[in-house]
Amino acid sequence: MRTWPKVTVVVCGSADEPAVGHTRASLGASDYQGELEILTGPPGDDSSPAAVANRLGLEASSGYLLVLAAGTTLDPRCLRRLVARAGEEDEPVIVSADRRGADGRPIAGQGFFSVAREVIDVLPEDRLPHDLTGVPTMLIRTTAFNAAGGFDLGLATSPALAADLAIRMIGPGGHIGRATGAVALEPGIRSGLERTPAYRLASPSAISPDALESKHRRPQTILWVAPHLPNPSRSGVDARHIQMMRALRSPGTELVVFSAHGTHEAATERRLDALGIHRIAPPPDERWEPNLGRDHRFEDVFGARPWDTILVSHSHMAPGIMPIIRRAAGDARTIVDMGSVRFPAAHNPTSPQPDVNDPWVVQEIATLSGADAVVTATIQDRHIIELAEPTIPAFVWSALGEDPGPGGTLDGSLLYVGDLFHHPNAQGIEWWLDAVAARVEARMGRPVPLRAVGTGSEIYRTIWRHPHKIELAGWQPDLGRELAAARVLTIPLTYTTGTGGRMATALAAGLPVAASAPAAALLPDRLAGLVHVGSSPAELAGAIAGLLTDDARWEDARAALLETDIPALRVAQSNRFVDWLASIESRDGPGRSAAASQMSGSRRGLRRLVRAS
Asked: Are 201 and 272 in contact (CB under 8 A)?
């Protein structure tokens, strides 16, 4: 049989207050099976709630302490669930309940953002808030409360008192446990609440007190908005975004990722934590969302802090959330990255000017309405934006890959890397099977199967039954091993799409690349010049066969790659990006309110990013 510890509940008010009576009545209905001690101030006590909590809480000898505001009522199962959650692991000294209004609807104000605006200027510099929940609805380990000395009565506001106590109790890197289904109804909350519970910063801030000259100078803040947490193993777009994030992680700059669709990816979360990239997690009870609507979720995040920059990482998200940004964070500069969008541009000097009046181009350009600036993946995409919207500054962030170690071997395979769930990649493989593979075989005098590495192979194994043309290897966990075992990487795209990260990674490893012209166009000129390009099936087959049969040609190609300092190109691009971003100012545009426009002028002096080092 389980032994339930003694719990002391301090109700912050005098015994004769009607609100205190409501709280005591709810505790009387609790299904908690252990000893329950309820303490209140004496009749007529006019001490502050924090003073009452200190006086009574510091004298408690129980295992746990629960501090409640007068009038707070607990669901009968609340206390038992709080204690059960507290006993699940040793680390948390605080376990929170879900705070709701008297009508049962959730309250905005449970996390980091509920305290940041109100306490950032009043807390001591070594007590900046992180991942906090209001203390009046949290179960506290009594020994930790005593060790912290209770509330700091020198702080004026209740949010500051709560934030300060929790910071001192959980310490650097600590966290607050959450008891699912433990509901506390708060007094004085109006019904019909319009906002969801505040999203929380799921990783502690890395901004140290030394990074701030005074508490009146806050770190520069960038909010990165994405449909999901970026995972470089998922797609080339995500890998490119991770590189951009690294560029933005500089001293005095705080980068926070908001994943609109939640996370549920522990490995991805750990990867971001290791990079010092913070993230915002949604409330665990996602049943709240359908009732309150998607817009309220975004408003809660956009309006929660004075963001200097909001970067929307996929242009398809922009039309839906740009008006919300202007409404909730009108003074933030808004940057839109085109994500996976690639314009159908001409990719060689002899081609005619692209048609910016093409309906698809017009539709995609419309998604940028209200943006202060745009980031693209290729020069061609920026060219079209400059023709269609010459007033919008655009920056090209090329996917320059990673450094997986040395690659390429004379007796290696012909390799392809790409996600086959992405239709253009699958279409490129179809082009290889139909138009290129036979030509390579004819030049080589033998079949040369293409080793295709990437997700999505399973659905094509029963369709592409051509073992002499293709080997469907599926997803492989170690790309470096694949590059080391290959002789040539080929990317046979029929039009420009995705990112050039897989080619840049191969080039950085010293693995020669033969690709179609649309694929080579994904790379900046310096790297595109290192690719052996085939503009037609015959030319691509010739480039592949030449690298597979001519050892001297292969060695020369590899030497040219090893002489190219691709890491230096990455550093230079990162510095250009940070400098460019610092030069962008918010501008008046469609959807911006007059009030937001006035606010933007007052904060422009704060918008200066620290150059990446």
From this structure: no
